[in-house]
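At this stage, I put together one protein's amino acid sequence and its backbone structure tokens, which the following lines show:
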Amino acid sequence: MARGGPLVFVLFGPGGAGKGTVASRLVADDPRLWLSRSWTTRPRRASEPADAYYFADRSEFVAKAEADGFFEWAEFLGNLYGTPVPHAPPGCDVLLEIDLQGAEQVRAKRPDAVLILLAPPSPEVQAERLRGRGDDEDHVARRLAAGASELRTGRLIADAEVVNDDLAQATDAVAAIVEERRAAVGGGGQVLRH
């Protein structure tokens, strides 16, 4: 491929869209895709693996932010989330799994990044997924309210949108977008809007 450096793919969307699951499957299926592990100050959920995030306390997070150690970072519902400056292995493209605020910051810093909005099929399914990962009803209500706004704004900046109503199909759709972009850059073309 005639390009300089890795491509950056951003998988973003509201809580309960299934970003983490789709991202995990993508990197498991594509050895040329490297997932940057985000940092957060929120506590680890019982339902998530220990390496889902780098779980930091607020002072450690702020120190890294002040040292320009994040590609993007933001506060959401009282917790800090950030993507470290990515250092992908040679020959790999970067996958960022982040929220809307992060996607907006990435777009500002890397206009060539491919922003893929992952959406839940409905608010009811989104709420069910949030409850399934252990979120209490107050948190579910706040996530649903924020999610509606995130989807509206996300559609304005996304290069593509995938509805995650079937995990295998959603993963395949995102993988196809990755391959399409790789082919477009390799051939000098443009990514198509889905």
Observations:
- Residues 4 and 146 are 37 Å apart (CA to CA).
- Confidence is low (pLDDT under 50) at residues 188-194.
